[in-house]
């Protein structure tokens, strides 16, 4: 694995653990695609650090379980702004 990819994987994983951010948020911050972030944390990270990989996986599972709530909040906000 190239060093810049390894560095990005560790940076993205560290950010997700610290901030509990979503894949989309991390992708936006690091200026890469969601697919890249997902591949980094699901395929590449376990090869580098199994412990960090488990932490990230727990956070991503929590985000997945909560995404329907975030989607509902976004829709509610969208329609409230239209009324004004």
N-to-C series of helices and strands: HHHH
Main β-sheet: number of strands, strand sense, barrel status? none
Mean pLDDT across the residues is 92
Task: Tell me the number of structural domains.
Answer: 1
What is the tally of beta strands?
Answer: 0
Structure overview:
This protein is an all-alpha fold. It has one domain (3-83). It contains 4 helices and no strands. The longest helix is centred in the C-terminal third of the chain and has 34 residues, at 50-83. The chain is elongated, with a radius of gyration of 15 Å. 13% of the residues are buried.
Describe the SSE topology.
Elements (H helix, E strand, L loop, with lengths): L2 H17 L3 H8 L3 H15 L1 H34 L1
């Amino acid at each position: 694995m190239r060093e810049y990819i390894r560095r990005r994987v560790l940076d993205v994983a560290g950010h997700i653990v610290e901030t509990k951010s979503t894949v989309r948020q991390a992708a936006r911050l690091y200026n890469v695609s969601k697919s890249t972030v997902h591949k980094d944390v699901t395929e590449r990270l376990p090869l580098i650090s199994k412990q960090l990989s488990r932490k990230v996986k727990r956070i991503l599972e929590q985000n997945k379980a909560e995404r329907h709530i975030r989607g509902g909040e976004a829709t509610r906000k969208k329609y409230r702004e239209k009324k004004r």
